[in-house]
Write a structure and sequence with these properties.
The protein is 62% helix and 0% strand. It is mainly α and 182 residues long. Helix 2 (36-44) packs across helix 5 and helix 5 (76-113) runs antiparallel to helix 6 (118-148). The radius of gyration is 24 Å and the shape is elongated. The chain starts with a helix and ends in a 21-residue tail after the last helix.
């Protein structure tokens, strides 16, 4: 009998110490899979982490190049190029990000309404995956183009100013984008 009570008592302690789900905070989100900050990033064309492979490997982003223009000693032509690349990137990224938020909202609605089927699930997640891939490629290609407009010393300075010096393998392919590795 003592053994049974001990097991029950320990069981009660274990049940009493179960932590809340890490998803509890997500229950009030309009779109459960996206935070308000992420939705804002997607709808405004912000990088949202899509270009980290480029950013952290010597391929500067147009937005940050613009922000650091004076410290990078950009020429007028480089400033114009950076602004043009940023504007083009944003013009492509905003509609894609908005469509991604809408697709996630649709998926959320399917589950919320109980109308989700396997066919609709596959259709919607395929759409979301495609939009996500296109958005990432958009951000990455503008980092690639930005590198072509900068000199190797400017890229090295950019990395230092952004706090990347000494990180990663720092093989930047000679900078300037004209010595692409294949």
């Amino acid at each position: 009998m003592k053994r049974i009570l001990l097991v029950l008592a320990l069981g009660g302690v274990a049940i009493g110490t179960i932590a809340a789900s890490p998803y509890t905070a997500f229950t009030d989100r309009r779109v459960k899979a996206l935070s308000a900050e992420r939705i804002d990033e997607l709808r405004t064309g912000k990088g949202a982490g899509y270009a980290l492979a480029a950013e952290l490997n010597g391929y500067p982003g147009p937005r940050h190049v613009i922000d650091l223009a004076d410290r990078l000693d950009l020429t007028e032509e480089q400033k114009t190029t950076a602004q043009k690349l940023f504007d083009e990137m944003r013009a492509e990224a905003v509609p894609l990000g908005t469509a991604l938020v809408e697709a996630e909202t649709d998926l959320e609605s399917l589950f919320r309404s109980g109308r989700v089927t396997e066919a609709l699930l596959v259709q919607k997640t395929t759409e979301i995956g495609s939009l996500d891939a296109r958005l990432r490629a958009t951000h990455l290609k503008y980092h690639l183009a930005m590198k072509d407009a900068l000199s190797p010393p400017q890229i090295a300075l950019y990395d230092r100013l952004r706090g990347y010096s000494g990180r990663g393998d720092n093989r930047h392919g000679g900078g300037g984008g004209h010595q692409h590795r294949h």
